[in-house]
Amino acid sequence: MRGTAVTSGSLLERESSLGVILMLPGALLLMLFMAYPFFLGIWLSLTDSGIGRMGSFIGLRNFSDLLTDTIFHQTAWNTLIYGMVTVPFKAALGLGLALVLNQHMRFSNPVRAAVMMPWIVPTALSTLGWFMIFDPVFSPFSWLFKHLGLIKQNINFLGDPKLAISSVCLANIWRGTPFFGITILAGLQAVPNELHEAAAIDGAGMWHRFRHVTVPHIKGVVLIATLLSIIWTFADFQLIYVLTKGGPANQTHIFGTYAYQIGLSATEIGMGAAIALYMFPILAVFAVILLVYLRREE
Amino acid sequence: MIGSERLSNRLLNIYLPLVFYVLFLLFPFYWMTIVSFKPTNDLFELKFNPFWIQQFTLENYTYLFRETAFTEWLKNTLIVSVVSTTLSLTCSIFAGYALARLRFPGSHFLGVGIFLAYLVPPTLLFLPLAQVIAMLGIYNTYWALILTYPTQLIPFASWLLMGYFRTIPREIEESAMADGCSRLQILVRMILPLSVPGILSAGIFCFTLCWNEFLYALIFMSSGPMKTIPVGVVSDLIKADTLFWGSLMAAAVLGSFPIALIYSFFVKYYVSGLTAGAVKG
User: Fold this and answer.
1) Terminal CA-to-CA distance of chain A, rounded, Å?
2) What are A218-237's pLDDT values in tens digits?
3) pTM to 2 decimal places
4) In chain A, which residues have their Cβ closer than 8 Å to the Cβ of B13?
5) How far apart are CA A213 and CA A2, in angstroms?
6) Domains, chain B, ranges and CATH?
7) Residues of A in contact with B91 (CB under 8 A)
């Protein structure tokens, strides 16, 4: 009895064994619910499985079928627009927001808390606000523009195939701007005040100080925020699911919503897994860039 | 003269852009809130200004509690969020401490692995994960979410806590060890009390993500009354007729409120917590 007590005691005392023991609970959860499904997903994508039914191995047929699927082409194109075009808007608006929030002002804490809200509250719920703002009948914008005499008919933000992708992008920009804002703000607060003062004494104008003092200090956080934003937006789901479910006529499908539709609604889980896996190389590229950058910084 | 010039400068550089941002970022919340307090008939009244409330009513809120399963969804969301946050925080404190302080085989590899896990999006995994949930027989139970949410929480939380633990001077531990304290005693009695702000921001982060999560909740726990608030509101309150707007917006406001409240209290912790590492919320 005493022997075991001593061994377990020393297991918890030796750095090498204690480290492994402390990592174990988290690592187990991650392996069971992240690593294992990842490899299971690769296997599923190589089969014709349905829900609850293990199919047979069909090689890369799901992947090659998708390459000739026009809806998949549309989906890939939409994802590119949704994941890429929105990012510069979010970054620029977020930079502006951070510069404003970094100024001395009254009530700066409540103001910061308030403008963070789009990023903080449940996206599915705030998107319902946009769902009504974009409604063909109840949109306040349609009402406003009609009263200003700018339009005669209500705008069909989500029903018009040409307009729908811009509408979902707008909602995405709204949600993502505070993320850039707060991240860049954190970067701005790390800029030593003396640098600005010294530059001002040297006669540097506002633009010069921004360009040569601020920018070098926030380059890093802007890059990190951009890469994270691209990864998350590429792999988004709920905003589009709530607003359009991929419609009209698949004009707003992105990888996540299309994988959901094929994998669960149409119960072709193997094909759905293949759609989701098409995201992987793109995500991996951005993840590696981020990793390499962070290592270099260390 | 100089004073007024400065004032107009401040107006142009701070307050004008601030007004733009507040309008842009808060308008959807304003809109949701006023619609939630309007009687349904007022929405159809074209002569009414839609940007203001003509008649104030609470009927949309009472409807939610009397006629829908909102209370059930609230209970489910709370249970899942609290348990999953506790589980994730415990795992993350252990992992964060091990990564920050202990040298053990594979620690370097695990550090990188946890960082990469942070970048794995749910959309990449949800289909195979649905099979795993079915295999384990926990579909449509609390466990389906309690056990899967930590995969999204542990990576960031342990990263954040690792950063926090590293700021605590090693000498404190060394002197405690010289006094005969074991590593675990040091972790519980000295490191944790010193890390309360870090643990708080990690906890807020975890709780918010659990409360807000949509995709897994939509697929793994959405039969009968077993929905969380975001899933229940989105899938049950949007109806074919057009009379649902008031209660829909009321539900969106109520479901967002706890999170908004937590953040207005802890915004300072949040910002300082974020500065510690990469960011997600």
Assistant:
1) 47
2) 999 999 999 999 999 999 99
3) 0.92
4) 100, 103
5) 65
6) 2-26 (no CATH), 67-276 (1.10.3720.10)
7) 25-26, 29
